[in-house]
Give the backbone structure.
Amino acid sequence: MWFRLKNMKIGLLEERSDDAWFDLSLRQLRAGEVRFYKVDDLQTGKWLFKVCADEENNKSMVKAIKCPPGKLFSQLEGATMLFQKSSVGGDLYYDVISLTRVDQEGRVRREVVKTLEEVPSTIKENFQVKTYEEATGRKILGPHFVSLSKKDDEKDMIALFVIERAWTLPVEERQKAVDLMALIRKLEKTSISDIHDVTSETFQMERAVLDGLLAALEAKGKIKRLDDGFVKAV
């Protein structure tokens, strides 16, 4: 799956075979398997997630425990996404696709997508997308779309959380979380032009902003400029 590409790394930190959590939808304490994952996402930064598997009720809950810094990211801390059994296949779970929007007061809101065109291309290219009725066999008022993932593929569920909740935040917020040093180390010795291509495509970062960040890293002695417009981590 796409999350194995270089722009996002998801790793299992801890697995608990018998733990508990409070289910807000059921308003009760539930018990089952709980796993913690760390995420290093080039677009947004570092995350910590908790995934709670409720086998009895055929659903899993993904919860953001730690988010990248920033006023908008901080509002996602403690946010959850619910995945439930689909009628399409015995091992498939669905989540209702909703994206984040920021209101005039700077508060992060969720909006359920109403058209297929609103579904991010990353989701459409890497996951099955169905209408709510197709995925559940139940009708509801108004059009809703869901993504499908395997019930035991929790990395896919986490990836969906990041795409829907974080990648849809304004570009300025995502730029604040850019770990430019990590990018330079990953690219090793590389040209400033190549770095600009990556940051421009991924973060819509202007060249002047990148030059300012590079100058700050150079002043701190973290990078070294080489001949012909190349830089490397010190």
Notes: Residues 154-166 form the longest helix (13 residues). Confidence is low (pLDDT under 50) at residues 1-5.
